[in-house]
């Protein structure tokens, strides 16, 4: 049975310690005691370090506004630790603490704050661990801690925070981890973190080193699972194997290295699985082999100096990727198990795009997209379906692709793309213009298939010559040239030529209609050829 020790006795020993023996340093150490009464040290200045290990307290411990050298409550059970504005010259050790709450509002700890394997359960009246504006010159180490009722570090400062394998849960009114305005010199370590309700908030936080979220599991029924708008991370966000139910919000975040979400599961909040409009990333964004992405990935107006990679990712039905006005070094869209329904690349600026036809979404917005390279280099016939997945016709998208093929020296592919542009545009024209478009397409392929004009010309001349051979026209003058069916047909069909045959002969009634058809066809063909040649010369 534990020995009972009155709290008043401990207070006296701390405030009026006996003089130490020569060569020794005074300190108080108590192990396994049952402490009765309330230990009240608020506003007290305790000059000796103390250790109360594995003790049980009947009542809360009061350390508000106190000044301590160092304090160790390892393994203690106590109703609550009230330590607002506490000042500690060394470490405050709360490892394996079992408590109904810890208050550290405005506390200043010049050493480290230890919460390893602590078990803290709030009473629902506020955060279980309430440390807004906490200052820790060393690190806050809460490896394997269990906090039920939320951890509040609003506006706190520390060298580093360690929440590896911790278990956090929040109440309905507040998040499981509140770190708005948090400032860390080095890392925020949340590897294998489990958050069951409440989510994580890091609005406006600054992390000088890395943010580790590998294999973290963060779930909430209300709000964002991870809400970190305007977050600044000097290093990268490394969250391989992350699972979130409630989406990730990185609006206008600044990341000095990469964002890695390989093999993650992202389920949405208000249709957003990952939202980062206006963010800036100095290296890469990687969502390769994501197990499941539902909802929308929104990186509008984001600048990524490296690559945005979606290789082997599985998108849920109806998922979208919004890269409107994004600036990317590279985009990788390959080997998708299930592509998103929509990809918005409108007004995006991308150095290189690597994709595969079987990973193209059903709808792709390409208006004002600019790029320098496409990998792999596909024939135009294989690349055109990529353009045709745009819901609306945008000539710039065709011009961009044609310019890319010209840059490679693939002139035939460039002409194929420009021909497809005219055919796509034709669908939006009035009926008379569409009719003329069909004529241009059938005759010379809008100027990109000029060889067709010769075929049409030869066909018309041959048809007319056969008809006039069977029913020769009458001579218009007694001493004219002899009748030549082919020359007569050429004279009719080509309006720019005067071979003397048309004036020298008058068609009989049965062939008059052939003259009209030949002349009209010749004018149409000639006008179309001139138009196409003008277009090609102007383009050159």
TrEMBL record:
<keyword id="KW-0472">Membrane</keyword>
<feature type="transmembrane region" description="Helical">
    <location>
        <begin position="513"/>
        <end position="534"/>
    </location>
</feature>
<keyword id="KW-1133">Transmembrane helix</keyword>
<keyword id="KW-0812">Transmembrane</keyword>
<protein>
    <submittedName>
        <fullName>Oxidoreductase</fullName>
    </submittedName>
</protein>
């Amino acid at each position: 049975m534990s020995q009972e020790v009155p709290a008043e006795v401990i207070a006296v020993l701390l405030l009026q310690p006996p003089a130490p023996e020569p060569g020794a340093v005074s300190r108080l150490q108590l192990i396994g005691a049952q402490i009765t009464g309330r230990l009240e040290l608020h506003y007290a200045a305790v000059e000796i370090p103390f250790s109360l290990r594995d003790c049980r307290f009947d009542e809360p411990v009061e350390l508000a506004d106190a000044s301590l050298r160092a304090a160790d409550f390892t393994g203690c059970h106590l109703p609550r630790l009230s330590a607002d504005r506490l000042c500690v010259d060394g470490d405050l050790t709360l490892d394996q603490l079992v408590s109904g709450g810890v208050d550290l509002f405005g506390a200043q700890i010049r050493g480290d704050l230890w919460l390893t394997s602590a078990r803290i359960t709030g009473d629902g009246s506020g955060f279980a661990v309430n440390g807004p504006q906490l200052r820790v010159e060393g690190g806050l180490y809460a490896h394997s801690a269990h906090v039920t009722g939320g951890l509040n570090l609003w506006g706190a400062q520390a060298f580093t925070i360690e929440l590896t394998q911790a278990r956090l849960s929040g109440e309905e009114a507040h998040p499981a981890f509140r770190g708005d305005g948090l400032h860390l010199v080095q890392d925020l370590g949340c590897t294998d973190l489990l958050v069951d309700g409440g989510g994580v908030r890091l609005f406006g936080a600054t992390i000088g080193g890395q943010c580790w979220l590998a294999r973290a599991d963060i779930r909430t029924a209300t709000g964002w699972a991870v809400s970190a708008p305007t977050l600044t991370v000097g290093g990268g966000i490394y969250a391989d194997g992350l699972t979130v139910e409630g989406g990730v919000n990185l609006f206008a975040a600044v990341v000095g290295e990469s964002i890695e979400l390989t093999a993650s599961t992202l389920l949405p909040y208000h249709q957003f699985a990952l939202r980062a409009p206006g963010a800036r990333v100095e290296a890469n964004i990687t969502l390769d082999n994501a197990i499941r992405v539902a909802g929308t990935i929104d990186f509008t107006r984001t600048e990524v100096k490296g690559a945005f990679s979606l290789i082997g990712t599985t998108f849920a039905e109806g998922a979208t990727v919004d890269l409107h006005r994004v600036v990317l070094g590279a985009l990788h869209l390959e080997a998708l198990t299930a592509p998103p329904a929509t990809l918005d690349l409108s007004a995006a600026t991308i150095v290189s795009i690597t994709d595969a036809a079987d990973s193209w979404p059903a709808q792709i917005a390409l208006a004002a997209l600019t790029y320098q390279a496409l990998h792999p280099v596909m024939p135009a016939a294989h690349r055109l379906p990529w353009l045709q997945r745009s819901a609306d016709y945008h000539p710039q998208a065709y011009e961009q692709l044609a310019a890319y093929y010209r840059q490679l020296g693939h002139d035939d592919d460039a002409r194929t793309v420009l021909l497809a542009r005219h055919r796509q545009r034709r669908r939006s024209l009035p009926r008379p213009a569409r009719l003329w478009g069909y004529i241009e397409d059938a005759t010379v392929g809008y100027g990109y298939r000029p060889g067709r004009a010769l075929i049409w010309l030869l066909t018309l001349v041959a048809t007319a010559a056969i008809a006039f051979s069977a029913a020769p026209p009458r001579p218009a003058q007694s001493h004219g040239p002899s009748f030549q069916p082919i020359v007569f047909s050429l004279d009719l069909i080509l309006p720019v030529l005067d071979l003397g045959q048309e004036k020298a002969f008058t068609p009989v009634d049965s062939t008059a209609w052939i003259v009209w058809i030949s002349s009209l066809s010749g004018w149409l063909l000639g006008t179309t050829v001139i138009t196409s040649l003008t277009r090609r010369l102007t383009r050159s």
